[in-house]
Amino acid sequence: MTLRPSSTLRALLTGTACLFLASSALPGYAADDAKAKPDVAADKKADKDDALPPLPDDKTIHQSIQLDGKTLNYDATVGSIPVRDAKGKKIADVVFTAYIVPGKAPSRPVTFAFNGGPGASSVYLNMGAVGPKRVQFGDEGDSPSDSSVTTDNPNSWLDMTDLVFIDPVGTGYSRSLEDDDATKKDFWSTEADIQYLSRVVYDWLVKNGRLRSPKYVMGESYGGYRAPRIANALQTRMGVGVSGLIMVSPYLDPAAVGSETALSPLPWMINLPSMAAANFEKQDKLTPAAIAEVEQYDRTQFVTDFLAGRSDPQAVSRMVAKVSEYTGLDPALVARMDGRVDSMTFVRESHRNERKIGSWYDSNVTAYDPFPESPSQKSGDPILNALLAPTTSAMVDFVTREVGWKTDAHYEALSPVVGENWQQYPNEDKPVSDLRQAIANDPKMKVLIAHGYNDLSCPFFTSRLVVDQLPTFGGTKQVKLSVYPGGHMFYSRAGSGIAFKADAKALYSKD
Length: 511
Fold this sequence. Notes:
Elements: H1 7-13, H2 29-35, H3 40-50, E1 59-67, E2 70-84, E3 90-100, E4 110-114, H4 123-130, E5 133-134, E6 151-152, E7 162-166, E8 175-176, H5 180-186, H6 190-207, E9 215-220, H7 222-238, E10 244-248, H8 254-257, H9 266-282, H10 288-299, H11 301-308, H12 313-327, H13 331-336, H14 343-349, E11 356-358, E12 366-368, H15 382-403, H16 416-421, H17 430-441, E13 446-452, H18 460-469, E14 479-484, H19 494-508
Parallel strand pairs: 4-7, 4-9, 9-10, 10-13, 13-14
Antiparallel strand pairs: 1-2, 2-3, 3-7, 3-8, 5-6, 11-12
Helix pairs in contact: 6-7, 7-17, 9-10, 11-12
């Protein structure tokens, strides 16, 4: 889940370092800590936070699901992993939800799943994509008052792997025990985030005796930024091998999607195929062949005309004609923009004649525009507005009523506090760099990158370009890119969820 597109949230994903571990510190942290001067005020605040009521002990219940006509029994556990500083003091509680099929051999895989934001809990992958229970969200017609009653998820991955959904600090029920400044430094930055979450994975494996199991890391949106970096950290720092990576609508290359430079055509290139896909879908003309044509134009004539610039009127005219054709937008509007249509203009204008607004996460998911007379969008995103209530209610009901893990804390499905305070370095390609290193480290590790055609928050063409630039790694085909109908949460569409699971089966197979 990606927390954009407001100006505050948009800034988050153009994105960050003290390294904290659950039981001990990474090499180098203790020395840095020793140099720091004592902060009496912070210590007092931390002591006060330590007085918070402790979280409940881990709680497990036994449940079952019908998958492919068969009953699968499993244990559902809600619990927490402590995060400690270099001196052993607990500075945070990270809450997880695990679904384990008991009695399986050590060869049974276990998958660790993270959503993104930053500021999103793991409820979206849990109760939308691969967990054993699901609640509907992310599709046309969904609304905040929709039922929060969960049903068996026919596309659950529990028949292939045990599942552990992790909520980073500040999301779900996970909490920091430090003051605000220390929390920002120790948890709400790109580097600290990777280090403490890698240790949380390690500690869960040790706590549950699963170090011999095949291990997979799954991340959606900013979680897709996390996944390759956590895999590399597990391999090189934690001493844990990773058998596979699953990146769902990943935020994979911050520098490519940023608009800090007026010279790069990449941000415009990356958006165009997703805009075209949404337009084709409205006309029932969305096919891989139709998108391949757009991609070919995008890589060739579009780039040439873009770089020719406004000093070449013929180049601009060609861009305007093609972009208008592919997006379905008014040619006069596209002409005013010289063929350079940004994603927010597209979602605003593509449904304006219907007096509706499209979602940045799937531009064909719409809501009525409460301010149709306004030249710019003044309301929230249709998908974000619709999903918060049913997902929060469903998860809280599951944790507190079904499992019986009782807490008075509020469940943060989408935390604006985390997003607004996130620290990052915008122009860096560390997820791609770490992906390359993780694959090179382990030629047996498989990678699945999955996208929805209509997603403008994390467009699929970014990953297409990234994959095409990867080394061959000795000719092995370790990376598969799949694109499905739908948007950011493409798995909310039944057909796409089925296709996603089919691709995942190949990832989990031993062949």
